[in-house]
Amino acid sequence: MRNSLRIAALGAALAAGSLATSAHAAATATATATAEVLETLTLTAVDDLNFGQIAANTGGTVTVNADSTVASTGTLISTGTRAPATFTVTGSASTSVVVTLPSAAVNLTRSGGTETMSLDTFNSNPNGAFQLSAAGTGAFSVGGTLTVANGQVPGSYSGTFPVSVEYQ
């Protein structure tokens, strides 16, 4: 019985020693958490998307691209001032922003009437994301394609389309 007590005492001593050893092996450290709050983005429309004057003839499309190039299809005639819409952005210096354009067509409606033309295939320049300047400013343009029907009713057509920017 004495041997059993000695063995039990030895076992308890060894167990206490191993607990003490693992307590000395623990370590702690601290880390720093940081965050930067960005300036609120401001988006301002400067110039409207302008398709100029159009002689519909048998219809077609007029495309005014964001890079200011112009093209048309069909037998229509497109003339006059044709230019992309332009926008300015202000926000935090040297940050990247991404432009979001409409994914669905929007209608331009004749002033004083109900006739419409469809505007789609929106594009931007620069395309997608770009970096704001060291002063926190930037600019981009937006173009699209206007579908003109055969015998489109004459008149002035207008409509709006959404454009947004967000930090990337």
Quick synopsis:
The protein has one helix at 2-25; strands spanning 42-47, 53-55, 60-64, 70-74, 77-79, 85-90, 96-100, 106-110, 116-125, 129-131, 137-148, 157-158, 164-167. The chain is mainly beta and 168 residues long.
Explain this structure.
- This protein is mainly beta and 168 residues long.
- It has one domain: Immunoglobulin-like (Sandwich).
- It is 14% helix and 41% strand.
- It contains 1 helix and 13 strands, in the order H-E-E-E-E-E-E-E-E-E-E-E-E-E.
- The strands form 3 sheets. Strands 1, 3, 4, 6, 8, 9, 11 and 12 form an 8-stranded antiparallel β-sheet that branches. A 3-stranded antiparallel β-sheet has the order 10-7-13, with no helix packed on it. The protein has a two-stranded antiparallel ribbon with strand order 2-5.
- The radius of gyration is 34 Å and the shape is elongated.
Topology diagram in text:
Blueprint: H1 2-25, E1 42-47, E2 53-55, E3 60-64, E4 70-74, E5 77-79, E6 85-90, E7 96-100, E8 106-110, E9 116-125, E10 129-131, E11 137-148, E12 157-158, E13 164-167
